[in-house]
Amino acid sequence: MTTQFRGVVPPVVTPLREDRTFDEASFDKQINRMIDAGVHGLFVLGSSGEVAFSTDARRREVLAATQRVVQGRVPVLAGVIDTQTERVIEHIRVCEEYGVDGIVATAPFYALGGEAQVERHFRALREATDLPIFAYDIPVCVHTKLSVDLLIRLGKDGVIQGVKDSSGDDVSFRLLCLRNKEEGHPLALFTGHEVVVDGAYMSGADGSVPGLGNVDPDGYVRQWNAYEAGDWEAVRAEQDRLADVMKVAMSAKGISGYGAGVGGFKTALQLMGVFESNQMPEPVSALTGENVEAVRAVLVRNGLLEG
């Protein structure tokens, strides 16, 4: 079930028009742009894809547009992120309806109950679907860190088929990779940590899910190809360049968190002529003024935009 999930799988940013309706034309352009760059899959309705801000109707819009454009050219993972198990299962049913290739789920949040409850959550999801399940480790948002022991246990039992690690805990990820190898590689392991993908590959990751891959998919594909060829110097050099490009998500002043990060990606894509607007979902403000110029400077410095 995991063999099709390998390589660079960007979490697709969801473009909005100025009136905050879904900009399907820009979305189509972005998906084709990333597939043309050689990405190995797409992850829609993740954190970068504004899943936490999306109504059920918006989720359906995104899933329908994705499948219409992708047409089976690459595997599609879809986020089914919600507070508790029954709500997540409802989202799984919609994903099944749209024919996605796998789903991505976090631990339950809001009503927290410890690791036993988290484990039951994932086992209930497996009972509800035959789709491959990726556990999304993002403790900054759900306030639960998925332990190595839990993930390996769920993997060996066939409950989950992979992990999307956005914990920022590189020690834990290294230990997870080591255990995964020792246990016969039951899990496909992906890092969501854009600036240390080279280290994740060295640890034994099966791929990356970089939000920055929306802005520079070619760079992450080049890095993957260098990794596959065993050219570690090229892997490191590409990572150094991508670390600087990542400053599009780190340069905003007066705006923090989601508005700076995904807002920076959207602003970069607008400046590059991919998105019509850098609009953000309520109540997040789009970048303006000097913050837009800061993003522009990063793109120009890295040859992604003419000066």
From TrEMBL:
Lyase recorded as keyword: yes
Active site: 136, 164
InterPro entries the record matches: Aldolase_TIM, DapA-like, Schiff_base-form_aldolases_AS
One Gene Ontology cellular component annotation held by this UniProt entry: cytosol
Signal sequence annotation: none
Residues that hold pyruvate according to the record: 209
GO molecular function (one): N-acetylneuraminate lyase activity
Record keywords, A-Z: Lyase, Schiff base
Pfam families found in the cross-reference section: DHDPS (PF00701)
One Gene Ontology term from the biological process aspect of the record: N-acetylneuraminate catabolic process
Protein family according to the UniProt entry: Belongs to the DapA family.
Protein's recorded name: Dihydrodipicolinate synthase family protein
